[in-house]
Amino acid sequence: MRMEIFFKFVFGLLIVLVSSQQPIVNQLEYPPGDTFNITCDVSRFADLRSAGELLSISLLRQLSTQTSFENIASYEPKAEKKMTTNIPIQWQVFYAGGEGINNRNTIRLVVTVVDFQCADAGLYQCQIFIPAPSHQANTTPVNITAKIGITQKDIYMTPHKKIIGEDIHSSVNTVGVEITLTCSFTGPANLQALWRRKKAGHEENYPYANNIKNSKPVFSVISGCNTYDYTSELKCTLEEKDNGTLYICVVMEDNIERSRKMFTNICSEQSTNNISPSKPGSRPDSAGSNVGTRVFGLLVVLVIIVVLIYFFVIQKNKQIESPEAYLCPVLPSGDWCGWC
C-alpha cells in the first residue's frame, strides 16, 4: 500500500514537471547580428501525459511575409532522418536522443540562430508527432522580433577649439560668437532628440525652441532592418552667462531616455565689446597695437636723425664749398685783413 502511494506521488510529480511548459527561447527580442538558440523538447509542451514515444520533433516558422507555418528543421530518430529547409546556411541544427520506445525525455532539437536579421523575425513553434493514438502537438507560437539598437555619435561643435589637457568634449569660444551643436544618431523609427543644459549642478530642458532644428530622418536598410539616421542642431549666440554650460542631447523613444551625449562650452575672457578690426570703430587687438606703436616710434626716430644729418652735415658742407667763404674781410680802414 505504501509502495503504491509512493509511485502515485512520483507519477504525479512527473506530470507536474512535464506539464509546466518552458519557453522555446530565452527572450522574444534580439538585436540584428545576435546569436541565440531555439530549443524543442518535451519540456516546451503543455500536458503530454499520454505520450511515451515520439516519432519526430520539428521547428516551424511563419515569417511576416508568409500566411502559414513551414517546417524548417525536423528529426525522426527511428528513421534516422534529419532535415532542414529554408534557413540561412550559417544557422546550426543540433539533434539529440530519441532512441528506444520511451524516448520522450531524450529527444531534442536545437536550432542555433547565427547572425540574426530583421528578415528572420516572425512566429516560431515546436511540433511533435505521437504514434498511439496518432496525433501531433504544438507549442504556443512565440513572436521573435528584431530590436534595432540606437547608436549616438558625440556632439560636434562649430567653431571648435579643443581644450589642451582637458576633456575633448569641450570647446573654448568667444562671447558674442554664434555656435552650432550637432547631435547625430541612428536607430528605429519614431526617435526624438531632446536638448538639455546643465550648469552648477542644475539640469533643465533647453528653453529656446527656436534655436533647435531637427532634420527629416534618412531611411536606409541595414542587416535587413529599417533604419533611420537623425540629425538635430542647436544654434545660439554665446553670452557671458553661458560660460561653463554643459549641453546635453538626449535620444528619446516613447518618452523614455535611451541614450545621451554631452558637450561643455567654456567662454573666453574676452568681452562682448571686442569688435572685429575690419569694421568701423573697431580697435586692433593688443598684439597688433603693440606692433603698430613700435613701428611708429621707429619712424619718428628715423625722421629726427635725417633732420639732424641735414642741418649739421649737408648745410655745413655747402658753406665750405661756397666761393664767398674764401673772401678776406675788409677792415674799416679799407685795407684787407693781413692774415687773410
TrEMBL record:
Residues 1-20 form the signal peptide. Residues 159-264 form the Ig-like domain. One of its GO terms (biological process) is cell surface receptor signaling pathway. The chain crosses the membrane at residues 295-313. Gene3D superfamilies: Immunoglobulins. It is found in: Cell membrane. PROSITE patterns: IG_LIKE. Keywords: Cell membrane, Disulfide bond, Glycoprotein, Immunoglobulin domain, Membrane, Receptor, Signal, Transmembrane, Transmembrane helix. It is a single-pass type I membrane protein. Its main location: membrane. InterPro entries: Ig-like_dom (IPR007110), Ig-like_dom_sf (IPR036179), Ig-like_fold (IPR013783), T-cell_Activation_Regulation (IPR051713). One of its GO terms (cellular component) is external side of plasma membrane. This is Uncharacterized protein LOC106071327 isoform X3. The gene is LOC106071327.
